Every structure is written in structure tokens, then in C-alpha cells.
Amino acid sequence: MSKKGKKAKMPLSDEEQLLLFQQKLLAEEEMAKKKERLLSQFLKDKLAKEEHNSALNLYKINTQWRTVLREVKTRELHKDIEILSQTFERVVDCKDSVIKSLATDLSEAEEQYAHALRSHLHSIDQLLALQRSRLNLLEESYNMELEALTKEFETERKTIIDQHEKEIHYLQDVFMAMEQNYIDSEYESKLEFQSMWDDLKNKNLEEKHFLRLHLENTVEDLWRRFQDALKNYTDATEDQKIAFETLKVKDERSSKEIEAQMKKIQKLQDSIIILRGKIMVHSHENEDRNQYIRKDKELVLAQLRKLKAQRSHAREISQENLVKLTLESNATLKALRKIVDKVTKGKGQSKQNQETWLLRSETGLRKVEGFLLLPA
Questions:
Q1: pLDDT tens per residue, range 314-340
Q2: How far apart are CA 150 and CA 318, in angstroms?
Q3: Which pLDDT band holds residue 366 (cuts at 50, 70, 90)?
Q4: Where are the chain's structural domains?
Q5: Closest CA to 344 of 360, 334, 356, 362
Q6: Among candidates 354, 352, 332, 330, which has minimal Cα distance to 342?
């Protein structure tokens, strides 16, 4: 027993003390976490109960408040209905009084309408009488103006026919002059185009021939130099490097000259293409000019057709007017004969006077017909 007590009272080391302290801390932390969990669960349960109780109390309060509001609203509606019934009776009484006053006004308005209708009909009768007299005066003035217009029509017809013939002669002269100008301009443009074409063709042939001769001379010169170099190479092997260098330089120069000549040839070909394009442009311009002249010709022809159509239309109108005038003259002859018969019967003149008077009137009317039936 004394040995065990000694062992228990032995002091612990630092590591063991640290371990014990850490174990105590862990146990305390676990206890604190458990307490926090229990507390949070308790608070959640309490919060849920409070929410349930608050919702139930709110529902009870709302139901009681609704009943109170319904009672108050019914009282207000009863009061409004009583007020509206009183106002409605008052309005009905006002409407009845208005209807009675309107009935009296309507009877008075009917009496006034009947009086106004009688006065209106009287004024319409007066206006009709005035209109009839005015129509008679207008008919007389119409007959006078008709005679004046027939005279003016004859004079205007003669002047229009003369002017139309003059304009036709003028347009024919203009058409002939335009056609002659068109032929001359077309011939000149063709000659100019042919001369330009020949000049360009000759110039291109001369330039090609000159370039061909120049290239042949350069090729012969280069071939001669190449033969001399070969001879020098076979004769003197020591001067081989110097001759090779000189030949290399000459070859480069000749290649540059060939490139320059090729560029010149390319430029000449480009100029030939440009000149061909210009020739095509000139041909298109000539075609456009020809089309413009043709359009002018067609416009002049269209104007001539319009003038001819107007002339034919004027002739048709004049013929229709002449037919109308002949019919009216025949009707007037018949009316005059009837009048003469009545006059001779009433006055008791002799048959000879009657026949002479008829012959004179017929001859006068035939002269009028002959004047009207003159050719347009």
C-alpha cells in the first residue's frame, strides 16, 4: 500500500500535463456545443409556437374586424339609399315640369313652322316667276351668241387651216435638213475613224519593225562577243578569270538591255490596247450620236403624226358642225314655208307673190348652205 501511494503522488511530466489540459479543453468545447445546440433547438421550437399563436390571433382579429366593418357599411348604405331615393323623386318632379314646358314650346313651334311654310311657299312662287323671265332673257342672249360664235368659228377655221399648212411645210423642210446633216456627219465620222485606224496601224508596224532590227543587231553583237571570248579562252588560259568577269558584266548589261527592250515592247503593246479602247470608245460615241439623231427624227415624225391627227380631228369636227347646220337650215326652211303659208292665207295675197317670196327665201337659204358646205 505504501508503494502505490508513492506512485500516485509522483509528479507528472510536461507532456502529460499538456495532454490532460487539451483533453479538458476538448471536453469543455463539446459540452459548450451541446449546450448551444440545445439552446438553439429550444429557441426554434419557441419561435414556431409564437408564430403559430400570432397567426391564429391575427385571424381572429381579422374576422372580428370584418364583422364590425360590415355592420358599419350596411348602416352607411341604408343612409345612401334613403338620400338617393329622395334625390330621385326630386329629379323626377323636375323632369315632369320640363316635359310640360317642352310640350307647350312644341305647340308654339308647330304654329310658327306652319306660318313660315306659308311664307316660304309664297316666296318660292315669286322666285319661279322671276326665274322664268330670266330664262327667256337667257334664251334670247344664247341665240345671239350662237350666231356670233358660228361666224367666229368660220374665221378661226380658215386661219387654223392656213397656219397648219405653213407648219407642215416648215416641218418638212426641217426634216430634210436634219436628214442631210445626219448623212454628212456620219460620212465625216467614218472617214475620220478610217484615217485614225490606218495611222495607228502604220505606226505600230513601223515600231515593230524597228524593234525587231534593233534586237537582231544586239543578238548578233552578243554572239560575236561570245565567239571572241571563246577564242580568247582557248588562246590564253591565264586570262580566263578576267575574261569571265568581263563577259559576266557584259552579259548582265545585255540582260538589262533585253529587259528594257521587253519593257518597251510591253509599253507599246499597252499603248496599242489603249488605242484600240479609244477606237472602240469613238465608235460607241458615234453610235450614241447616231441614236440621238434617230431619236430626234422619231420625235419630229411623232410631232408630224400628232399634227395630222389634230388636222383630221378638226376636219371631223367641222364636218359634224356642217351637218348640224344643214339640218338646222332644212328645219328653218320648213318652218319658214309654214309661216309663209299662214301669212298668205291670213292676208289673202295672190299665189304669184307667195311663190316669189318662197323662191327668194329658198335661194337665200341655198346660198347659206353652199357657203357652209365649202370644202375644208
A1: 778 877 877 777 777 677 777 777 776
A2: 11
A3: low
A4: 249-326
A5: 356
A6: 354
